[in-house]
Amino acid sequence: MIITYRNSDSVNNARFNYELQLLEIALSKTITEYGDYTLQPSPTMNTTRSLNSVERNTYTNFFMLATYKSIYDKTMDYVPIPLQRGIVGYRVFITTKEGQAKLDKLQTKEELKHLKVVQGAGWQDVAILRNNGFKTTTIDNYFSLFQFLSHNRSDIFPRGVSEYEFELSYHSENISNLVLDNKYALYYEFPRFFYTNKNNTRAKQRIYDGLKKAWEDGSFVQLWERYHLDTIKKARLSNREILELENSEVSHISNDIAKYLYKVH
To answer: How far apart are CA 16 and CA 256, in angstroms?
Structure first.
């Protein structure tokens, strides 16, 4: 069985290593039932092209990581196990010293909605934030988001708890005034899955069977902890004031995924 995975155009390619290793684990645990496999990269591509490739079934058994969106159900299918256990739904704030001063003056977490937020154009977070009352500006270019924030044209840039550490480190080489707020966080359900074309039923079932085995034998959680637990601890989520937001998209998802989700206690 040939399985094709997305070869990202992102500078932060390392953030896909975890999902690629999960894919390899799922395939290796199902050799007895499904036979050998070949795992191959797609051409380098952005998210839009990747989604188009899934819809058109351009590459053999092509799988890509994507956040759940109900409109995808019309043309694509997903393996119903949230790969990152939903942790990207925990959002901490990259800000500046000036933005931090505004955060420090807030009396309640509801007052976060008074701040100016920046997000990437086309990101699903934009609709969630706006639907929950946040004033949100969008920027097309990923790198420009950090420049926009550094010039205090927005107050906060919410980032997933698994994303902020690398981004602060990487962008500190060129931007010196970015900091991580240590008091607040947002949370909304934001599961990410392996998506593939609807015709790839056998490959999808194989990945599902393999991931389920990995969950049951502990290797899934072990890999997840190796990649994500340290950055979660550094974010000190349990000590933050967390404002929970509603994501209407997730009403379309089965409650069966709840057992996989990580929750801050």
So the answer is: 25
Structural class in CATH, domain 2-84+189-217: alpha beta
Fold observed for domain 87-187: D-Maltodextrin-Binding Protein; domain 2 (3.40.190)
Residue type for position 20: L
Residue 174, pLDDT score: 86
The C-alpha atoms of residue 18 and residue 27 are separated, in whole angstroms, by 14
Residues of the chain with pLDDT under 50: 12
Q: Are 136 and 161 a contacting pair, CB within 8 Å? A: no
pLDDT score for 121: 86
The dihedral formed by the CA atoms of 222, 223, 227 and 231, expressed in degrees to the nearest 10: -20
Nearest to 117 by CA among 80, 140, 145: 145
Are 118 and 137 in contact by the 8 Å Cβ rule? The answer is yes
User: Distance (Å, rounded) from C-alpha 155 to C-alpha 157?
Assistant: 7
> The whole model's pTM is what?
0.83
